[in-house]
Predict the 3D structure of the following.
Amino acid sequence: MLSPTVVRPTVVFRPTVVIGLGGTGYEVVLKLKKRFIDVYGSVPEVIRFISIDTTENIQEREKSPDGTKVFLEPNELYAISVANPLPLTRNDHIAEWWPRDISAASLISGAGQIRARGRLALFARVGDIKGLIAQAINAVREIRTSKQAFSDNFQVSSRDGVEVFIVGSLAGGTGSGTFLDVAFLTREHLNNFSNITGVFVLPRVFANIPQTHLVKSNAYGALKEIEHFWGLSPSNSIEIDYGVAKIKADRPPFDAVFLIDGVNKNGTVVGRPDDLQNLVADGLYIQIGSQIGLDAANVADNIRAYLATGEKVRGRNINYCSFGFATLTLPVQQYERMKLEDAQSLLKNELIASTPIIDLESDIARFLEDCKLADVSTILNALTESDRGGQIKPEFRIGEIRHDRTALATIKELYKRQLDQFEQRTAQELGLSFYRLEQAASAAIATWWERSLNRPNGLAYALQFLSKLSQKLDELQQSVQHKSQEAKTSFNTLKLEPQEEKIKEAAETWFSNKNTIQTACQRYKERADQKWKTYLHWKRCDKAAELYGVLRARLEEIQEKCQRLQSNLDKVYRDFEQSYHEVSRQGNNDNPFIHTIQRINLQSKRPKVTGEDFIRWYREQSQTLTNWSEKKAEDVKNEILKFIDEAYYPLTSMTVEQVLADTNPEDAGQDLQQLGKLAVPLWQYEESEIPIAQQHLITEFYYYGVESNNTVFSNPPLSSRLPKGNNNPSFVPTGEPHKVMLFRVEVGVPLFAFNGMRDMELAYVDPNKVFKHLHRNWTNLANLIPSEDDGGALRWFALALAPERYKLIVNHSKKYFVSTEQAKRLEGGVLPLGSDRKSAFKTFKSNLPLVKEIAHKVELITHEDQDKAKFTLQNYINHLNQVLKGGKVDSQIQEQVEMEIQEIEAYLEDLDVII
């Protein structure tokens, strides 16, 4: 039988720290840790996990395939609970941002969906958290620096930098209240080659959970902050005072942000938070392992490079991503069900079944005959068998005794001396014979047990045999004990005193006769011989009874072992039943993001598992089933499973790639296309909200998790049938032969296009909702949804504001005016629009004739001399960008100016100008 040998691919990891925030972050980190343990047996030292929460979470556990409990270690968990946070709000560095209308209640059982309370808890423990993050980053960085290789299957990337993933939900109080500060604190310890990737769950999946009325407003407030802080730069920085330290933030908190919704682009709903957390963990697992070679770029590198242009859509950033994750798999759960079915069948029908035994009495009689235990007389004779052959014959020797008055004293002295010797010799010889018989019988019993147990259903046979044999030995013991008692009675009845009197009489007569004395002495000897013979019989009966007793005790020991083994096998059978139900239940919980290849004829490839095969296999391991009596049930179970695993190896050793490679390319292509359809990103957006000219900014990256770098998908015919985006897909070695995973990243969608964003905005502006931001001065941050632009009014407004050749709208004395035919009768021929840029545009776009008039004038000016127009407009764009970089423009005005810049750039592109 083939022995399965698992060969893991050599994977190159970049030093990585994963920080989970709040309940969602904790669950994702735990599930992610389980993924690494499932595949590699442990978490590589170059990867560290941290979970931060405002509640003392009851430590949950995940189970790995072998049943091992997976949990976060104490150094991976940090609770930022605060019993009395009110005094903290009086500190200046907290008072400057703490919202005045929020209660500073206890922070022990969570932040209660209040974002600012989550931030307050972080500020209370900021020194510890800062140290915790620094320690984790330094630990993984030192491993890379020292080029440490802690396993043949792990290598550390030579690329500089550390990957940090911050994971949580934007809907609650802890994750949504701490994610920005954790990012800013983390950035302090990273160089420019490092990446911080945010992975945040949107509120939809929590909508139906009780006491989640703030999830939408929280998420909208958090997203406004993320959107705003993309604008951080050395010339536009902020300073955050944490009390223990001040941090200057001059870079965006994140290099990439993944937003994960409870519905994907195809409308497939992920209804349970646990299911969504599993998908996030799967996506993170692929990202962390996506460093394919020493010089390869990973997901964050690719996204950062793609977004480096800094392009915006309607004044909004497009630095947002989502991902879909799906798995193409062989029917591994069906493998497990089949294996557990066969394990149960092996136990129930081949190892512990009670089958009728027709010739049990004959078997016992034969065994007793073979062991010479069936006939008591045989045992008795064996006990008194002489070394020289024949039976031991006890004899009282009187020798050349003088037949006179001294005869009685002499013969009594001889008897006493020889009796001591006879008793000692009898005890010694019976002892030696007993030992010999006991060893032979015990060896026979052991041989019988070995032979009986190591056969199909031998345990049930052994238990019945032992029970009957023990009864038979008990009968034989009682029989010989009865004989012993009779012999003892006979021995005590045989008295020497009458013979002594005869000798005395013969010796003391007046005229003593030697012949009379000699005859009396001979009668004494005969009576002594008879007494010793009875003694010998008595003692050998005792020894025979003792032998039967010892053998019965030996049988009882074996019976106890068999019963212990029976109990263990019953427990193993129940474990198999439970495992089977668990696997079946998992199989019935259809995961919509898993596609199983169904073309394998499992029954034709299913091995035949028999008890004889198992026993033969077990003997080949130089073992006997009798060893099970000394083993724990768990060890017995593992040995049975090892046999089943080896029996199934020809089936389970098939890989997804082998099956696809051996399949008709068209059929394989259908499976791969289905994988692509399932792995659609977990978000929905309205493409119509994005100007047609900028819809091309949305792109996708495909990352395939394959068994090893040597994948069949790199070459035809499968390479051409593999779903892919605009770029060639990347292949990530995972070491999992039964799965091909697709991690499909979509990037470039502005927040205002998100499905559900308007609902979040409505919840955000609801005056009955508690304060939604982390700083009381952040309410004036730009809205995520830009104002509507009817009829292209913004383009003509922006162009009319351009200087020199255009200058159709001017800002004079902090008021905006437009030169128009509509103002002929007004003083100066100009029409006032508003006191600021936003109000001016609002007035402008509401006057459709004015918009058409200005559009006509702009076109005339442009086409009068396109080169000069282009030059003027490009200089104007540069001027506006310089003003924005100064950081002195109100966020509401900045939003509009950014949109104006985009409209002017689009106008220049329409003129077929590349600048």
Observations:
- DSSP finds 26 helices and 22 strands in the chain.
- The mean pLDDT is 86.
- Residues 514-588 form the longest helix (75 residues).
- Residues 62 and 70 are 5 Å apart (CA to CA).
